[in-house]
Amino acid sequence: MQGACYTEPASQNLSKVSVYAQAAQRDRLSAFGVLLAGAPVSNMTYLTPRWDSLNMTTISNLNFSKTQANGTRICLELFKPTTINEFCEREGASGSFCWVALFNDNNCVPPNSTVVISKRLCCPRFQSFLSP
Predict the structure, then answer these.
(1) 28 belongs to a structural domain
(2) Distances 22 to 13, 19, 61, 74, 124 between C-alpha atoms, Å
(3) Is 1 part of a structural domain of the chain?
């Protein structure tokens, strides 16, 4: 995919990951678990999620190269008895999945934007869904 946000994706780092969640389930997420590719489960790092007004929960400042990101696992640690189906927002779609957005670190904005540089946001590299 090419465009203002997608130029030279192989040279960009994975900066942050966001998951679209049910507003009523905000307090059911304990942490994001990040396990680098090839590492034993005992090396999982737990990060505190950040929430925005659009019910997206995010971990940021990852700065993973393409090589580091390939095979890395990012897990949602939910309080029992919450299930992934209860936690994730699917906007009426059926099935067991979560919408996940992966962001690069190029701080781009659309061409001809009037957004001040300090207010720029990362652009999603991929928008997909993930089956539990």
Answers:
(1) yes
(2) 28, 10, 24, 19, 20
(3) no
CA separation for the pair 130, 125 (Å, rounded): 15
Place of tokens 């679209």: 20
Q: How many domains does the chain have?
A: 1
> CB within 8 A of 47, min separation 6: which ones?
31, 32, 33, 34, 59
At 129 the pLDDT is 54
Q: Note whether residue 89 is domain-resident.
A: yes
Residues 6+ apart with CB under 8 A from 59: 16, 17, 32, 34, 47, 49, 50, 74
Closest alpha carbon to 17 in 63, 71, 77: 63
Q: Is the pTM of this model over 0.85?
A: no
84 is in which domain, residue-wise? 9-130
As a whole number of angstroms, the distance between CA 121 and CA 132 comes to 28
